[in-house]
Amino acid sequence: MKKRILASLLCAALTAGLLTACSDGADDKDSKKNNGDPAVQEEEKELTKVTLNEVAHSIFYAPMYVAIEEGYFEEEGIELDLVCGFGADKTMTAVISGEADIGFMGSEASIYTYNEGANDYVVNFAQLTQRAGNFLVAREEMEDFSWEDLKGRLVLGGRKGGMPEMVFEYILKENGIDPETDLEINQNIDFGSTAAAFAEGQGDFTVEFEPGATTLESEGKGYVVASLGEDSGYVPYTAFSAKKSYIDENPDIIQGFTNALQKGMDYVQSHTPEEIAAVIEPQFPETNLETITTIVTRYYDQDTWKSNLIFEESSFDLLQDILESAGELEKRAPYEDLVTTKFAAIAAQ
Q: pLDDT tens-digit profile of 239-263?
Protein backbone atom coordinates (compact mmCIF):
# COMPACT_ATOMS: atom_id res chain seq x y z
CA MET A 1 0.00 0.00 0.00
CA LYS A 2 2.90 2.29 0.82
CA LYS A 3 4.28 1.87 -2.67
CA ARG A 4 0.84 2.53 -4.15
CA ILE A 5 0.38 5.75 -2.19
CA LEU A 6 3.88 6.98 -2.98
CA ALA A 7 3.45 6.10 -6.65
CA SER A 8 0.17 8.01 -6.79
CA LEU A 9 1.72 11.04 -5.11
CA LEU A 10 4.72 10.94 -7.49
CA CYS A 11 2.40 10.75 -10.48
CA ALA A 12 0.35 13.67 -9.16
CA ALA A 13 3.49 15.69 -8.54
CA LEU A 14 4.83 15.07 -12.05
CA THR A 15 1.48 15.91 -13.61
CA ALA A 16 1.24 19.13 -11.60
CA GLY A 17 4.77 20.04 -12.67
CA LEU A 18 3.95 19.56 -16.35
CA LEU A 19 0.76 21.60 -16.08
CA THR A 20 2.60 24.41 -14.30
CA ALA A 21 5.30 24.50 -16.97
CA CYS A 22 2.72 24.69 -19.75
CA SER A 23 0.82 27.42 -17.95
CA ASP A 24 3.89 29.54 -17.31
CA GLY A 25 4.96 29.40 -20.96
CA ALA A 26 1.50 30.01 -22.36
CA ASP A 27 -0.34 32.67 -20.41
CA ASP A 28 0.51 34.55 -17.21
CA LYS A 29 -3.14 35.43 -16.87
CA ASP A 30 -4.12 31.75 -16.71
CA SER A 31 -1.36 31.15 -14.17
CA LYS A 32 -2.67 33.86 -11.87
CA LYS A 33 -6.19 32.51 -12.29
CA ASN A 34 -5.11 29.00 -11.25
CA ASN A 35 -3.19 30.34 -8.28
CA GLY A 36 -6.37 31.93 -7.03
CA ASP A 37 -8.48 28.80 -7.54
CA PRO A 38 -9.30 27.22 -4.11
CA ALA A 39 -9.56 23.78 -5.74
CA VAL A 40 -6.05 24.07 -7.17
CA GLN A 41 -4.67 25.37 -3.88
CA GLU A 42 -6.28 22.45 -2.04
CA GLU A 43 -4.79 19.96 -4.52
CA GLU A 44 -1.33 21.46 -4.09
CA LYS A 45 -1.50 21.52 -0.29
CA GLU A 46 1.34 19.53 1.21
CA LEU A 47 0.26 16.34 2.95
CA THR A 48 1.40 15.42 6.45
CA LYS A 49 2.93 11.94 6.66
CA VAL A 50 1.43 9.73 9.36
CA THR A 51 2.72 6.23 10.07
CA LEU A 52 0.01 3.80 11.12
CA ASN A 53 1.00 0.40 12.48
CA GLU A 54 -1.85 -2.13 12.22
CA VAL A 55 -1.95 -5.31 14.29
CA ALA A 56 -2.82 -7.38 11.21
CA HIS A 57 -3.91 -6.83 7.62
CA SER A 58 -7.41 -8.24 7.55
CA ILE A 59 -10.73 -7.76 5.74
CA PHE A 60 -12.09 -7.49 9.29
CA TYR A 61 -10.91 -3.86 9.19
CA ALA A 62 -12.74 -2.99 5.96
CA PRO A 63 -13.81 0.58 6.91
CA MET A 64 -10.17 1.61 7.29
CA TYR A 65 -9.26 0.25 3.86
CA VAL A 66 -12.29 1.96 2.34
CA ALA A 67 -10.95 5.23 3.77
CA ILE A 68 -7.56 4.52 2.18
CA GLU A 69 -8.86 3.44 -1.22
CA GLU A 70 -11.41 6.26 -1.47
CA GLY A 71 -8.75 8.89 -0.71
CA TYR A 72 -10.35 10.09 2.52
CA PHE A 73 -7.01 10.49 4.30
CA GLU A 74 -5.65 12.66 1.49
CA GLU A 75 -8.82 14.76 1.72
CA GLU A 76 -7.89 15.39 5.36
CA GLY A 77 -4.31 16.36 4.44
CA ILE A 78 -2.73 13.06 5.47
CA GLU A 79 -0.25 10.90 3.58
CA LEU A 80 -0.74 7.52 5.26
CA ASP A 81 2.14 5.09 5.62
CA LEU A 82 0.53 1.75 6.55
CA VAL A 83 2.74 -0.83 8.25
CA CYS A 84 1.71 -4.26 9.58
CA GLY A 85 2.94 -5.11 13.06
CA PHE A 86 1.80 -8.75 13.09
CA GLY A 87 0.67 -8.71 16.72
CA ALA A 88 -0.50 -6.20 19.33
CA ASP A 89 2.74 -6.45 21.29
CA LYS A 90 4.78 -5.43 18.23
CA THR A 91 2.33 -2.67 17.29
CA MET A 92 2.41 -1.24 20.80
CA THR A 93 6.22 -1.34 20.80
CA ALA A 94 6.26 0.63 17.53
CA VAL A 95 3.98 3.31 19.00
CA ILE A 96 5.83 3.61 22.32
CA SER A 97 9.21 3.82 20.58
CA GLY A 98 7.98 6.49 18.16
CA GLU A 99 8.47 4.26 15.13
CA ALA A 100 4.73 4.66 14.48
CA ASP A 101 2.56 7.71 15.14
CA ILE A 102 -0.68 5.76 15.56
CA GLY A 103 -1.36 2.15 16.45
CA PHE A 104 -4.34 0.00 15.54
CA MET A 105 -4.78 -2.97 17.86
CA GLY A 106 -6.79 -4.46 20.69
CA SER A 107 -7.24 -1.92 23.49
CA GLU A 108 -6.06 -4.41 26.08
CA ALA A 109 -2.51 -3.45 25.05
CA SER A 110 -3.09 0.13 26.22
CA ILE A 111 -4.34 -1.15 29.60
CA TYR A 112 -1.29 -3.35 30.08
CA THR A 113 1.07 -0.50 29.23
CA TYR A 114 -0.74 1.93 31.54
CA ASN A 115 -0.68 -0.50 34.46
CA GLU A 116 3.05 -1.02 33.96
CA GLY A 117 3.50 2.62 34.92
CA ALA A 118 4.26 4.29 31.59
CA ASN A 119 4.34 8.08 31.92
CA ASP A 120 3.58 8.83 28.28
CA TYR A 121 0.94 6.13 27.99
CA VAL A 122 -1.15 5.30 24.95
CA VAL A 123 -4.68 6.70 24.66
CA ASN A 124 -7.49 5.21 22.54
CA PHE A 125 -9.26 7.82 20.40
CA ALA A 126 -11.36 5.80 17.92
CA GLN A 127 -13.00 2.38 18.11
CA LEU A 128 -13.40 0.52 14.80
CA THR A 129 -14.88 -2.92 15.48
CA GLN A 130 -17.56 -3.89 17.99
CA ARG A 131 -17.54 -7.64 17.45
CA ALA A 132 -14.85 -10.29 17.64
CA GLY A 133 -13.65 -11.12 14.14
CA ASN A 134 -12.81 -14.79 14.48
CA PHE A 135 -14.73 -17.98 13.88
CA LEU A 136 -14.68 -21.52 15.23
CA VAL A 137 -13.83 -24.03 12.50
CA ALA A 138 -14.51 -27.77 12.81
CA ARG A 139 -13.33 -30.68 10.70
CA GLU A 140 -16.86 -31.58 9.72
CA GLU A 141 -20.17 -29.81 9.27
CA MET A 142 -22.09 -29.46 12.54
CA GLU A 143 -25.52 -27.97 11.94
CA ASP A 144 -26.51 -28.34 15.60
CA PHE A 145 -23.19 -27.19 17.06
CA SER A 146 -23.11 -26.44 20.78
CA TRP A 147 -20.15 -25.14 22.75
CA GLU A 148 -20.53 -28.31 24.81
CA ASP A 149 -19.17 -30.14 21.76
CA LEU A 150 -15.71 -28.78 22.61
CA LYS A 151 -15.44 -30.79 25.81
CA GLY A 152 -12.60 -33.28 25.62
CA ARG A 153 -11.40 -31.88 22.29
CA LEU A 154 -8.19 -30.16 21.14
CA VAL A 155 -8.62 -26.59 19.89
CA LEU A 156 -5.97 -24.49 18.16
CA GLY A 157 -6.27 -21.17 20.00
CA GLY A 158 -4.50 -17.84 20.18
CA ARG A 159 -1.71 -16.19 22.13
CA LYS A 160 -2.22 -16.06 25.90
CA GLY A 161 -3.32 -12.55 26.88
CA GLY A 162 -4.40 -11.64 23.36
CA MET A 163 -7.96 -10.65 22.54
CA PRO A 164 -8.76 -13.66 20.30
CA GLU A 165 -7.88 -16.13 23.04
CA MET A 166 -9.47 -14.13 25.85
CA VAL A 167 -12.76 -13.72 23.99
CA PHE A 168 -12.75 -17.44 23.18
CA GLU A 169 -12.24 -18.35 26.84
CA TYR A 170 -14.85 -15.77 27.90
CA ILE A 171 -17.42 -17.50 25.67
CA LEU A 172 -16.47 -20.89 27.08
CA LYS A 173 -17.00 -19.68 30.64
CA GLU A 174 -20.30 -18.03 29.71
CA ASN A 175 -21.39 -21.48 28.51
CA GLY A 176 -20.26 -23.25 31.67
CA ILE A 177 -17.06 -24.70 30.19
CA ASP A 178 -13.75 -24.56 32.05
CA PRO A 179 -10.93 -23.71 29.58
CA GLU A 180 -8.40 -25.34 31.90
CA THR A 181 -10.03 -28.71 32.48
CA ASP A 182 -12.85 -29.35 30.01
CA LEU A 183 -10.76 -29.18 26.82
CA GLU A 184 -7.21 -28.70 25.59
CA ILE A 185 -6.22 -25.41 23.94
CA ASN A 186 -2.98 -25.23 21.98
CA GLN A 187 -1.60 -21.70 22.34
CA ASN A 188 1.88 -22.40 20.95
CA ILE A 189 1.23 -21.83 17.24
CA ASP A 190 2.25 -18.48 15.75
CA PHE A 191 -0.42 -15.96 14.80
CA GLY A 192 -1.54 -16.61 11.26
CA SER A 193 -0.24 -20.19 11.17
CA THR A 194 -3.14 -22.00 12.85
CA ALA A 195 -5.10 -22.51 9.62
CA ALA A 196 -2.14 -24.24 7.97
CA ALA A 197 -1.59 -26.38 11.07
CA PHE A 198 -5.26 -27.35 11.11
CA ALA A 199 -5.17 -28.19 7.40
CA GLU A 200 -2.23 -30.50 8.11
CA GLY A 201 -4.23 -32.41 10.69
CA GLN A 202 -3.54 -30.69 14.00
CA GLY A 203 -6.48 -30.19 16.38
CA ASP A 204 -10.19 -31.00 16.28
CA PHE A 205 -11.20 -27.34 16.04
CA THR A 206 -9.41 -24.08 15.33
CA VAL A 207 -10.22 -20.44 16.06
CA GLU A 208 -9.61 -18.51 12.83
CA PHE A 209 -9.64 -14.96 11.52
CA GLU A 210 -10.43 -14.36 7.90
CA PRO A 211 -9.37 -15.29 5.33
CA GLY A 212 -8.26 -18.41 7.24
CA ALA A 213 -11.79 -19.60 7.99
CA THR A 214 -13.09 -19.13 4.45
CA THR A 215 -9.93 -20.64 2.93
CA LEU A 216 -10.33 -23.80 5.01
CA GLU A 217 -13.94 -24.04 3.88
CA SER A 218 -13.13 -23.47 0.20
CA GLU A 219 -10.47 -26.20 0.36
CA GLY A 220 -12.88 -28.61 2.06
CA LYS A 221 -10.61 -28.87 5.10
CA GLY A 222 -12.85 -27.17 7.64
CA TYR A 223 -16.31 -25.77 8.31
CA VAL A 224 -17.31 -22.65 10.23
CA VAL A 225 -19.63 -23.77 13.04
CA ALA A 226 -19.76 -20.65 15.22
CA SER A 227 -19.00 -16.93 15.20
CA LEU A 228 -17.14 -15.67 18.26
CA GLY A 229 -18.37 -12.20 17.37
CA GLU A 230 -22.01 -13.22 17.70
CA ASP A 231 -21.57 -15.38 20.79
CA SER A 232 -19.45 -12.91 22.77
CA GLY A 233 -21.76 -9.94 22.18
CA TYR A 234 -20.57 -6.39 21.52
CA VAL A 235 -16.89 -6.18 22.43
CA PRO A 236 -14.51 -3.24 21.75
CA TYR A 237 -12.21 -5.51 19.80
CA THR A 238 -9.94 -3.02 18.05
CA ALA A 239 -9.24 0.71 18.35
CA PHE A 240 -6.84 3.39 17.15
CA SER A 241 -4.49 4.87 19.72
CA ALA A 242 -1.47 7.12 20.10
CA LYS A 243 0.79 8.31 22.85
CA LYS A 244 -0.73 11.00 25.03
CA SER A 245 2.04 13.42 24.04
CA TYR A 246 1.41 12.85 20.32
CA ILE A 247 -2.30 13.54 20.72
CA ASP A 248 -1.63 16.66 22.79
CA GLU A 249 0.90 17.99 20.27
CA ASN A 250 -0.99 17.02 17.10
CA PRO A 251 -4.75 17.42 17.71
CA ASP A 252 -5.37 18.52 14.11
CA ILE A 253 -3.73 15.38 12.74
CA ILE A 254 -5.72 13.15 15.10
CA GLN A 255 -8.93 14.95 14.13
CA GLY A 256 -8.21 14.66 10.42
CA PHE A 257 -7.30 10.99 10.82
CA THR A 258 -10.54 10.34 12.72
CA ASN A 259 -12.57 12.28 10.15
CA ALA A 260 -11.17 10.06 7.39
CA LEU A 261 -12.03 6.92 9.34
CA GLN A 262 -15.57 8.15 9.95
CA LYS A 263 -16.03 8.60 6.21
CA GLY A 264 -14.99 4.97 5.81
CA MET A 265 -17.49 3.95 8.50
CA ASP A 266 -20.22 5.93 6.76
CA TYR A 267 -19.43 4.19 3.49
CA VAL A 268 -19.80 0.64 4.88
CA GLN A 269 -23.05 1.65 6.59
CA SER A 270 -24.55 2.87 3.31
CA HIS A 271 -23.22 0.34 0.79
CA THR A 272 -23.65 -3.36 0.11
CA PRO A 273 -21.03 -6.02 0.91
CA GLU A 274 -20.44 -6.37 -2.83
CA GLU A 275 -19.69 -2.66 -3.17
CA ILE A 276 -17.44 -2.66 -0.10
CA ALA A 277 -15.54 -5.69 -1.38
CA ALA A 278 -14.95 -4.05 -4.76
CA VAL A 279 -13.47 -0.95 -3.10
CA ILE A 280 -11.05 -2.79 -0.81
CA GLU A 281 -10.03 -5.43 -3.36
CA PRO A 282 -6.68 -3.68 -4.15
CA GLN A 283 -5.69 -4.12 -0.49
CA PHE A 284 -5.82 -7.91 -0.87
CA PRO A 285 -4.20 -8.79 -4.23
CA GLU A 286 -3.75 -12.45 -3.25
CA THR A 287 -7.48 -12.91 -2.54
CA ASN A 288 -10.07 -13.08 -5.31
CA LEU A 289 -13.08 -10.75 -5.28
CA GLU A 290 -15.55 -13.58 -4.66
CA THR A 291 -13.73 -14.58 -1.47
CA ILE A 292 -13.43 -10.97 -0.32
CA THR A 293 -17.17 -10.54 -0.85
CA THR A 294 -17.94 -13.70 1.14
CA ILE A 295 -15.82 -12.47 4.04
CA VAL A 296 -17.20 -8.93 3.98
CA THR A 297 -20.73 -10.35 3.96
CA ARG A 298 -19.95 -12.52 6.96
CA TYR A 299 -18.71 -9.51 8.94
CA TYR A 300 -21.47 -7.26 7.60
CA ASP A 301 -24.22 -9.66 8.70
CA GLN A 302 -22.95 -9.89 12.27
CA ASP A 303 -22.89 -6.10 12.72
CA THR A 304 -19.11 -5.93 13.08
CA TRP A 305 -18.62 -2.22 12.46
CA LYS A 306 -19.93 0.65 14.57
CA SER A 307 -21.81 3.52 12.95
CA ASN A 308 -19.40 5.90 14.71
CA LEU A 309 -15.95 5.72 16.29
CA ILE A 310 -16.92 6.69 19.84
CA PHE A 311 -15.38 4.34 22.41
CA GLU A 312 -18.03 4.25 25.14
CA GLU A 313 -17.28 3.64 28.81
CA SER A 314 -19.59 0.60 28.94
CA SER A 315 -17.50 -1.03 26.22
CA PHE A 316 -14.29 -0.27 28.11
CA ASP A 317 -15.79 -1.82 31.25
CA LEU A 318 -16.74 -4.98 29.34
CA LEU A 319 -13.22 -5.20 27.95
CA GLN A 320 -11.79 -5.12 31.47
CA ASP A 321 -14.35 -7.74 32.58
CA ILE A 322 -12.98 -10.04 29.88
CA LEU A 323 -9.39 -9.35 30.94
CA GLU A 324 -10.24 -10.13 34.55
CA SER A 325 -12.06 -13.30 33.55
CA ALA A 326 -8.92 -14.41 31.71
CA GLY A 327 -6.72 -13.68 34.75
CA GLU A 328 -4.79 -11.05 32.81
CA LEU A 329 -5.75 -7.97 34.82
CA GLU A 330 -4.68 -7.27 38.40
CA LYS A 331 -5.88 -3.67 38.48
CA ARG A 332 -8.57 -1.93 36.44
CA ALA A 333 -7.46 1.15 34.50
CA PRO A 334 -9.44 4.43 34.49
CA TYR A 335 -11.52 5.05 31.38
CA GLU A 336 -10.95 8.81 31.56
CA ASP A 337 -7.18 8.30 31.25
CA LEU A 338 -7.10 5.73 28.47
CA VAL A 339 -9.96 6.89 26.25
CA THR A 340 -10.77 10.22 24.65
CA THR A 341 -14.00 10.58 22.67
CA LYS A 342 -13.73 14.23 21.60
CA PHE A 343 -12.24 13.52 18.17
CA ALA A 344 -14.74 10.76 17.35
CA ALA A 345 -17.64 12.89 18.57
CA ILE A 346 -16.67 15.74 16.25
CA ALA A 347 -16.16 13.34 13.33
CA ALA A 348 -19.61 11.84 13.88
CA GLN A 349 -21.39 15.20 13.63
A: 999 999 999 999 999 999 999 999 9
